[in-house]
Amino acid sequence: MYSKMLSLRFPKKTANKPVVYSLVKKFDLTFNIMKATIYPREEGFMVMELSGHKTNFQRGIRYLKSLGIQVDSIGQDIRRDDRKCFQCGACTAVCPTGALYVKRPQMEVLFDRDKCSACELCVSACPAKAMEIRFNKALLS
Amino acid sequence: MPKASFSRTIEEINKKIRAGKAVVVTAEQMGEIVKKSGPEKAAKEVDVVTTGTFSPMCSSGAFINFGHSKPTTKASKVWLNGVPAYAGLAAVDIYIGATEPTEDDPLNRVHPGQFKYGGGHVIQDLVAGKKVELLATAYGTDCYPNREIKKKVTISDLPYAMLFNPRNAYQNYNCAVNLTNKTIYTYMGVLKPHAGNANFATAGQLSPLLNDPYYRAIGLGTRIFIGGAKGHVVGPGTQHNPRAARGPNGVPLSPAGTIMVMGDMKAMDPRWVAGVSMLGYGCSLAVGIGIPIPVLDADMARFTGVTDEEIFTQIIDYGGDYPKGQAHSLGKVSYAELKSGSIRFNGSDVPTVPVSSYVRALEIANILKGWIERGEFLLTQPVEGLPSVERAE
Questions:
Q1: Closest residue of A to B362, CA-based?
Q2: Which end of chain B is more exposed for a tag (fewer CB within 10 A), N or C?
Q3: What contacts B385, CB < 8 A, 6 or more positions away?
Q4: A29 and A51, same structural domain?
């Protein structure tokens, strides 16, 4: 079983195509959509966890790219700026996966990137603005 | 009353500090010492207990004098990095408040607003030595003819920059829940519907005024750690309310005392002065404050030995009751429970969320401990006490 959290950026011409359906039907993959939105100029943006056999996963990614969709792995791309974070813990109220959590009894606020679903809720909820989104690396080969 | 036994004065403590012989512990350590040895023995062993807090506190700001221009200016409106400052003072004096947003901030027009930059951030940028754009407009007078100043300034260009917070270091604060059916955005952080989380905001056993419940040691003139520098308590803070209900140990059971504090921004460190953006609420400032408490006698040892199990606060509904101005307690909870990760509320386990940094509070208490141990920081006798109440004993 292979699984990754992905961000997909759809150009205008593909935003109305049932792409996720094809991923399931043609490549036997399962998905969990975290976020999906169409921007005013009709480009689409989606965050989803995609899982399945590794070979199928890679074929699925190739299919997405062939449609002109920009695919990025984003699990590693929510970062915490540890100079800005002052360890209050306010982020733990909104983190749905427990990636941000309080270590007790020290009350240290820790960030486990492996658990991060890149939902971005912490980015605006962090009082110190220490959580950053970085789309600078296309980590998929 | 027990017989008057052991006691010491602040002068005696300072003598020991100067000689490098003072015994200084943090309020966290004092809890263990008092639990183990009792307050009488602890009072003999320990001279000073250090406390700390690092939390957003909206009632903060800075008095700044930005120096005269040539020709001279009587500034009537002033902005720092686009954030309006209060200029209804002398010609080039201003007060910048922590919660003032940038002039063109969209605020809550798209709810919840992000409040990315405001007065608290200006203060942090100045302390960090960053360049800040100063814009001043004036109507012009015979003695101050200039109509506008626009320049970049750093803190070293400013003749005077004093952090001056009307209210800090709240002695206890509410535990916030939201009983409505949608998420709300408050100064206590994000509160999920149906009491999805319970937020709390003091450092509990480390918090300065919770270790001096009747303000025996903390008053006007008390020297403190503020923003990484030495500063002072200058009186009771706004909303100082010594008459809040108290437990048998004297510790208030709801928000009570506050202090007004000041410190020279030029001596501060941005690690301890952090601009804050509370989603959907506004801008603020988190300031690190640490106060040393002299162990004058067994009574003070008992007070400073207070632990999270013995400090309680009230659960308040910020979804319905609080905004109506009808806040009332939905239950009492200890800081030990709040720090454990969940509390029992209305028959279910509710995850707890701190909005005050315990890690930083402890770091402050330890820094202050080091200063005192090395003889760099002496204790002060307050010139005037804070308004207090008779002790119910």
A1: A106
A2: N
A3: B215, B216, B219, B220
A4: yes
